[in-house]
């Protein structure tokens, strides 16, 4: 496995910084100023280890692959580690071994090195003369990159590759370490990056021009015409792709278990053990992993809720050795922060998609959703995630599918994968929590307008534990006079609905004091659920003005209308959507976050009212393990491996049936 997480798990801060010149690794004390063309990582240490930090040995490891780190300095519990030279993008275990210790300590099970990302090329049109300067903007550019112009002189011809010159004097970002004065192409606090380059003499009539950036932490290939004119591109256009990870079939299980781990000390061990138990007790344990995977992060064009052109991003898993493969689109669940999304972090839901792909050879599309992930960072707080708003989510995720097809063709042409993979026409959809909602919304979009996205039909769809009835089932729970175990759900939904539909002029018009000033500012894509939950009242409806509560209780008012507009069942107006694809609703009966009634109501509406005989409901009852662990965490999370296991088993049976060849 291999990437670069500039913001790590909840108890670890992994903000990657840049260093300046060469030097040798030191393990007998602080190395002082960084002395290499590498990066510096900032990692929080447990108090018990802080006294030995300067004399410890640090390294990143993925199987037999190992990269050494040198300690630079220590401040307020944060040790700064220098990465020597080049390090491959990937997901690693970060180890620390204090001097004299017999065994190393694991500081992070999912320490990520991310490849560079190009979001835009700042030029009105492709320059026609040599020496023309353009600006590449994106994320995670390390110092001293190699930049190449790659092109063909005729369609289908050979690639030509010519070096571009980099204007180092134009670097606009400074290292935040006070003792480093050099200027760099990356803002170390945000990952924002910029390069000014000059193109070589161009060939008249060249086609398929791309920019290849090779940095210390990976590579990125950019469609120069697409990146230079995002606003003019059609939806679903691949703008750029970067290497994200490579996962061997033998590593898939360990990769999944590692994603369960967050926190520190004993809590990390508990979560790993719980994750292993949940996995082993679900049908996920029946998976046999056969396919090695290459993962890419991509940027592509889509539209926002107002129809404005924007960039979105996601991860694509490509099985090695396949020439024909089914497509899986796996939608992730609720994420408050941009950095939690698949292009920037490993999560258990992304790991589910990875194991599906490793077991059955899917090309897996794992969208970030609008406003999240690496593309979301491009827009800062001006682009939010339209939480549980079916239309912008569905269009964004659907637009990723033609971009995936372009990636398969382009990555093969660029020799980044060794087999040209063609999608075989079978398309599977799955997702959990908000991902279940997004899956049903995506199914609706593809069934109604699949030709736009190059999808002839949906082979099977499995929405899992999703909030399909916002204006009724979910609202009843949120208005109840009892604590709700995921309080952030309320402001996340209300604030983003209000922004999209422009209902109230200010937070104080619908959110009660003090929450209008203490909670609302946290819904910005940069504050996590822990902070929001701490700021919320235990009875979540108390964050709303009493007049708004009364309107919602009476099923009246503009907020209720917005919720009703985003219901996926019992549609209030317009054409009724009746699922035509085989659909399996999966839900845990005692889900304490997204109520089971969401799926029973959906089944009754689709199957009984509309007569969709292809829709089924699979109920997951609480196991002894769920009942035991729900005392320390929400059982909504505990149901996920069981639901994913049932989903995988159903898909696997379809693939193995008379029409399947796998």
The average pLDDT is: 82
The helix tally amounts to: 17
Distance between the termini: 25 Å
Give the C-alpha Rg.
25 Å
Q: Name the CATH superfamily assignment of the largest domain.
A: Alpha/Beta hydrolase fold, catalytic domain
User: Assembly state here?
Assistant: single chain
Q: What's the architecture of the largest domain in CATH terms? A: 3-Layer(aba) Sandwich
- Give the uncertain stretches in residue-range form: 1-38, 124-130, 174-182
Strand content: 25-35%
| CATH-defined fold name of the largest domain | Rossmann fold
The largest sheet has its strands arranged as 8-9-14-11-10-15-16-17-18-19-21-20-22-23-24-25
Taken from the alpha-carbon principal axes, the silhouette is globular
- Tally of distinct domains: 4
| Main beta sheet | 16 strands, mixed
Structural class: alpha+beta
Helix proportion: 25-40%
CATH class categorisation of the largest domain: Alpha Beta
Number of strands: 25
């Amino acid at each position: 496995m291999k990437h670069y997480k500039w913001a790590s798990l909840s108890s670890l801060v992994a903000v990657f910084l840049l260093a300046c010149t060469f030097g040798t690794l030191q393990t007998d004390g602080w190395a002082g100023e960084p002395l290499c063309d590498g990066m510096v990582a900032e990692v929080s240490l447990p108090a018990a280890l802080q006294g030995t930090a300067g004399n410890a040995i640090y390294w990143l490891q993925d199987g037999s692959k190992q990269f050494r780190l040198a300690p630079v300095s220590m401040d307020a519990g944060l040790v700064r580690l220098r990465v020597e030279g080049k390090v491959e993008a990937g997901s690693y275990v970060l180890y620390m071994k204090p001097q004299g210790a017999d065994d190393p300590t694991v500081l992070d099970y999912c320490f990520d090195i991310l490849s560079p990302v190009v979001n835009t090329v700042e030029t009105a049109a492709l320059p026609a003369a040599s020496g023309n300067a353009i600006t590449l903007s994106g994320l995670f550019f390390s110092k001293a990159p190699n930049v190449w112009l790659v092109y063909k002189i005729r369609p289908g011809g050979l690639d030509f590759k010519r070096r571009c010159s980099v204007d180092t004097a134009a670097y606009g970002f400074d290292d935040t370490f006070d003792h480093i004065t050099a200027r760099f192409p990356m803002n170390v606090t945000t990952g924002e990056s910029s390069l000014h380059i000059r193109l070589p003499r161009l060939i008249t009539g060249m086609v398929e021009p791309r920019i290849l950036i090779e940095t210390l932490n990976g590579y990125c290939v950019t469609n120069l015409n697409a990146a230079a004119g995002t606003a003019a591109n059609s939806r679903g256009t691949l703008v750029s792709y970067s290497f994200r990870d490579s996962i061997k079939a033998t590593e898939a299980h360990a990769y999944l278990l590692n994603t369960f781990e967050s926190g520190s000390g004993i809590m990390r061990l508990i979560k790993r053990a719980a994750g292993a138990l949940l996995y082993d007790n679900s049908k996920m344990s029946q998976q046999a992993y056969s396919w090695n995977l290459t993962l890419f992060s991509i940027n592509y064009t889509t539209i926002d809720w107002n129809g404005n052109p924007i960039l979105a991003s996601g991860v694509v898993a490509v099985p090695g050795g396949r020439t024909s493969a089914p497509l899986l689109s796996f939608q992730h669940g609720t994420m408050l922060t941009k950095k939690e999304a698949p292009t920037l972090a490993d999560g258990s839901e992304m790991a589910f998609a990875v194991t599906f792909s490793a077991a059955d050879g899917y090309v897996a599309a794992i969208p970030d959703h609008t406003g999240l992930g690496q593309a979301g960072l491009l827009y800062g707080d001006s682009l939010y995630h339209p939480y549980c708003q079916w239309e912008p989510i569905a269009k964004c995720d659907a637009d990723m599918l033609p971009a995936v097809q372009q990636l398969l063709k382009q990555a093969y042409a660029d020799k980044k994968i060794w087999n040209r993979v063609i999608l075989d026409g079978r398309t599977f959809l799955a997702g959990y929590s908000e991902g279940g909602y997004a899956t049903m919304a995506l199914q609706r979009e593809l069934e109604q307008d699949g030709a736009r996205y190059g999808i002839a039909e949906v082979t099977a769809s499995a929405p899992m534990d999703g909030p399909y009835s916002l204006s009724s089932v979910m609202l009843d729970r949120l208005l109840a006079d009892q604590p709700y175990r995921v309080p952030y759900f309320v402001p996340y939904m209300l604030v983003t609905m209000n922004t999209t539909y422009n209902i109230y002029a200010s937070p104080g018009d619908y959110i009660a004091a003090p929450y209008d000033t203490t909670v609302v500012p946290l819904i910005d894509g940069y504050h996590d659920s822990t902070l929001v939950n701490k700021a919320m009242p235990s009875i979540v409806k108390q964050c709303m003005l009493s007049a708004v509560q009364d309107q919602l209780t009476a099923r009246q008012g503009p907020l209720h209308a917005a919720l009703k507009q985003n219901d996926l069942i019992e549609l209030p107006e317009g054409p009724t959507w009746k699922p035509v694809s085989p659909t399996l609703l999966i839900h845990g009966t005692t889900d304490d976050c997204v109520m089971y009634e969401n799926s029973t109501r959906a089944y009754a509406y689709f199957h009984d009212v509309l007569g969709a005989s292809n829709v089924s409901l699979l109920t997951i009852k609480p196991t002894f393990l769920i009942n035991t662990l729900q005392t320390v965490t929400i059982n909504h999370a505990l149901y996920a491996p069981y639901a994913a296991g049932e989903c995988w088993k159903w898909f696997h049976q379809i693939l193995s049936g008379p029409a399947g060849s796998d």
